[in-house]
Write a structure and sequence with these properties.
mainly beta; iron; seven-stranded antiparallel beta sheet; about 280 residues; metal ion binding
Length: about 280
């Protein structure tokens, strides 16, 4: 099937979430409602405390997983299962909402840069009501694939036999790539998986399609991805692909199920006071 091309690209839309955190929504918009199995991707990046200090106070989730990757800053996770974690530069918080959990994500800094991503990954119907879970992964525990022109750090999934440390319920690849000036990376991928690339810094080209800083590109089909950096500055970002679930998606805010009846049940369970315990 050859090399993958970019079928669509976007700089996202400005949005506000939590208690007033300013961000850019890349997936979960009118243009890209979802990219099975991915439900949402937010990029947050600001050195203005007013943009992030209010954080994300307690709120519920059901039916999917959240992956929060912090490039810069400090954030604290607490949830109704008693889990607590401090997320620092390069760290990841991976939470399985499953049948229901209430959590908060709050900045632990009063100034400076807060920068990172949050990805929502759908769960298949058979796993939506599993027990909630949570784990942290430090950047030093990601697995690195080196090349002359740069490297790829793998959080979850596998590239060329190198397996990342995170175990996702929905099969996926989550990686952070870095390319030196005038360099390129060739990445073999599953031809059956949907995916995207986001540019955190620099400018890249994929099959002659330019993606500058802050842009996300959705991939077409193919078995190989070639990312080229034709500039005199380094470039980096994330590359994420996942196995499509191909089931109905019914979403209302923080609840993602397969039917309207299941969404109503989620509200009933949450309002009963026992949700997330």
């Amino acid at each position: 099937m050859g090399r993958r091309k970019i079928s669509y690209k976007t700089s996202g839309i400005a949005a506000t979430d939590g208690a007033g955190v300013k961000l850019r929504r890349m997936i979960g918009t009118e243009d890209i409602p979802n990219l099975d199995p991915f439900l949402m991707l937010d990029e947050f990046k600001s050195d203005s405390p007013d943009d992030y200090l209010a954080g994300f106070p307690n709120h519920p989730h059901r039916g999917f997983e959240t992956v929060t990757y912090l490039l810069e800053g400090i954030m604290e996770h607490n949830d109704s299962k008693g889990n607590r974690g401090i997320l620092e530069k390069g760290g990841v918080q991976w939470m399985t909402a499953g049948r229901g959990i209430v959590h908060s994500e709050m900045p632990k800094q009063e100034n400076g840069m807060m920068r990172g991503y949050q990805l929502w990954v759908n769960l298949p119907s058979g796993l939506k009501m599993i027990e909630p879970g949570y784990f942290d992964v430090s950047r030093k525990d990601w697995k690195r694939l080196e090349s002359e022109d740069g490297h790829i750090d793998i959080l979850a999934g596998e590239i060329s036999g190198i397996q990342g440390p995170a175990k996702s319920k929905t099969p996926l690849l989550y990686s952070h790539w870095y390319i030196k000036p005038n360099g390129s990376l060739k990445i073999p991928v599953s031809s059956q998986w949907n995916g995207f690339v986001h540019v955190a810094e620099g400018n890249i080209e994929i099959e002659n399609e330019s993606l500058p800083t802050g842009f996300l590109g959705v991939f077409g089909s193919g078995e190989e991805i070639v990312i080229e950096n034709k500039t005199n500055s380094p470039a980096e970002g994330i590359l994420v692909l996942g196995e499509p679930i191909r089931e109905p998606i019914v979403q209302y805010g923080p609840f993602v199920m397969n039917t309207k009846e299941e969404i109503m049940q989620a509200f009933t369970d949450f309002q009963s006071g026992n949700f997330g315990h």
